[in-house]
Amino acid sequence: xxxxxxxxxxxxxxxxxxxxxxxxxxxxxxxxxxxxxxxxxxxxxxxxxxxxxxxxxxxxxxxxxxxxxxxxxxxxxxxxxxxxxxxxxxxxxxxxxxxxxxxxxxxxxxxxxxxxxxxxxxxxxxxxxxxxxxxxxxxxxxxxxxxxxxxxxxxxxxxxxxxxxxxxxxxxxxxxxxxxxxxxxxxxxxxxxxxxxxxxxxxxxxxxxxxxxxxxxxxxxxxxxxxxxxxxxxxxxxxxxxxxxxxxxxxxxxxxxxxxxxxxxxxxxxxxxxxxxxxxxxxxxxxxxxxxxxxxxxxxxxxxxxxxxxxxxxxxxxxxxx
Length: 322
What we know:
With 322 residues, the chain is mainly alpha-helical.
């Protein structure tokens, strides 16, 4: 029954993606209307031209049709994987995005993994040593890390470890060799992970502190259960609920830091592409990137909901599926 209820819940969540995704496509399509003169003005870049050329461009982009006809034509192309062509480089938008998507996913996954693998143990150490020197040190570092902007952290790390100490490369992704790749990506991943790591540490500490004083934990300790078993079985399992929820939200928020980190470290990912597209008012590229980011956010929220139901022992699939 639990398996069927889980499938029903996931299916219902996926069905809800349809209207949400349609709203995202409408918002993305309307981005072009915010630019004075629209796509035609961007393509012409202020150069003098005759009426025939302008009319040909308007016909090409369906600008003489009603707005809903323009949207349906654009949506039809999107559903076929055609996001148009870049105004600046003339390359297909879908190709430009897909060729850079893997790097951005790699950077975000590495940052989140580092934040979880370091932040959770630090939070546990701080909670179990409450009020002591280790706790104060961890809390102090967490407050500093959560307050520092991504671009400041990235610049400081780049200056100290790449420029002054010459331990890591200044920019680029390196070769296909795994070791060289990790060497080039280490600093960007650390720069991106600092803020999430601090937040994960604080959330873990607060969750563990709340749980270690619960009655079932005190009863387990009175029965002589070892502290390690209490920590793993009785505390950490329940503490994972807010941690995983926070991690899912961070997966969305990391996109903001990616823009700064990729630009500073010269990484050809979606963040750097977005910056160059905004500078050049490349409407088709901006639309494609915002669409991908919007779908990323929607899917991340569904992932958060599903994982929450899986790990929360107090929420049954049957109740969640109602």
